[in-house]
Design a protein that fits this description.
This protein is an alpha/beta fold. It has 2 domains: 171 residues, 3-Layer(aba) Sandwich (Rossmann fold); 178 residues, Glutathione S-transferase Yfyf (Class Pi), Chain A, domain 2, CATH 1.20.1050.90. It has 11 helices and 15 strands. It has a 6-stranded antiparallel β-sheet. Strands 8-12-13-3-14-15 form a 6-stranded mixed β-sheet, sandwiched between helices. Helix 5 crosses helix 6. The longest helix has 39 residues. The chain is globular and about 70 Å long. The two termini are 27 Å apart. Belongs to the RecF family.
């Protein structure tokens, strides 16, 4: 799978354009503040419907504009050309697949993408919600039923909280939503448990291969129910039910749910110590990159196709030794890469210079 062509209109500081892309390496380089990150942000936005820089849609609009369109042609694993487009204004986002309007849940996962940006360090050092959001999206790329469970669970949780706040927990409607709450919550737990179990093995192997063969890296699923590693779906749901009963009185006092997978966390351990507190900045960057490489491996295993990969500012993020290790890794993979840098890198592929938002193909 690869992105053949990218077009955009009114996207940040970028000049409206249509760009033909390389099947393998695409290097976007130039001075800081010219639009390099915005270019790969447009690629990410086309694939996911989301920015990796902001949650505010307005910030994507060019100054004095109130609409953004991003359009792309991609080749799927069957070598078929398809078209994706997102049309955004201040009120809504519309998603199009081959010029037909579609729901987001049907759009996401068609063009899989893995990103590596400086802000990703927050996956380790940030609060649990950052980790939950990250893993929610990554699991959803490969598992449509997980995305459906997440969407449904959020709606159920909102209604359950409203019923608790309004002191309606003795009414039949609460019992109905409470049952749905446990059912979808249990589905989410099982998906998360399986994903973390599989990716943790790959994470350790990739960290050793790319950065330190003597280290031991683990990713642990910190479920709100405690240890659920060997429990069946029925046992998890039963434990969930007991947890709800135990916290029912406290929930009534506070007026919202105190239990559920919205309380989960994920913990990185390097050589037996929590990476958030004990790993160096260099180790944290290497952990995150190893995680991204492991995501690629997982997607290939689950969907039998390679995702796109975008990396922002590689030259300042890694030293020369780590940078070479990373570039060598991608040279040997069938992955379409978009890499930004302040300097030309010695790689084969298509190179673009960005100057004041204008994308210029480097013909050298």
């Amino acid at each position: 799978m690869y992105l053949k062509q990218l077009s955009y209109s009114n996207f940040r500081c970028l000049e409206d354009t249509k760009t033909e892309l390389d099947r393998n390496f695409n290097l976007i380089y130039g001075k800081n503040g010219q639009g390099k990150t915005s270019f790969i942000e447009a690629v990410h936005f086309l694939a996911t419907g989301k920015s990796f820089r902001t949650k505010k849609t307005k910030e994507l609009f060019r100054y004095n504009k109130n609409r953004v369109i991003v359009f792309g042609k991609y080749i799927n694993k069957n070598e078929e050309e398809n078209i994706l487009a997102i049309d955004v204004n201040e009120e809504k986002k519309d998603f199009y697949i081959n010029r037909n309007k579609n729901k987001y849940i049907d759009y996401v996962g068609l063009l899989n993408i893995i990103s590596f940006i400086p802000e990703d360090i927050e996956i380790i050092v940030g609060n649990p919600s950052i980790r939950r959001n990250f893993f929610n999206y990554e699991i959803s790329q490969a598992k449509k039923d997980y995305l459906k469970s997440i969407v449904d669970f959020e709606k159920i949780l909102k209604t359950r909280n409203k019923l608790i706040k309004e002191k309606k927990t003795r009414e039949e409607i609460y019992s109905i939503y409470n049952e749905k709450f446990m059912e979808e919550g249990t589905n989410i737990i099982i998906h998360r448990r399986e994903f973390i179990k599989n990716i943790s093995i790959l994470l350790n192997l990739n960290y050793r291969k790319l950065f330190d063969p003597k280290s031991e890296l683990k990713l642990k699923y910190d479920c709100f129910l405690g240890d659920i590693d060997k429990k069946t779906k029925e046992e998890i749901k039963e434990k969930f039910s007991e947890n709800i009963k135990r916290k029912a009185e406290r929930e009534k006092i506070l007026g919202y749910s105190l239990t559920g997978p919205q309380k989960d966390d994920f913990i990185f351990e390097l050589n037996g110590k929590n990476a958030k507190s004990f790993s160096s900045q260099g180790e944290k960057k290497s952990i995150i990159f190893s995680l991204k490489v492991s995501e690629i491996d997982m997607l290939v295993k689950e969907k039998n196709e390679y995702p796109l990969f975008i990396m922002d500012d590689i030259a300042s993020y890694f030293d020369e030794v780590r940078k070479k290790s990373i570039l060598d890794y991608f040279i040997n993979k069938k992955i379409q890469c978009f890499i930004t840098s302040t300097e030309d890198l010695n790689i084969k592929g298509k190179k673009f210079i960005i100057e004041k938002g204008k994308v210029i193909t480097d013909e050298k």
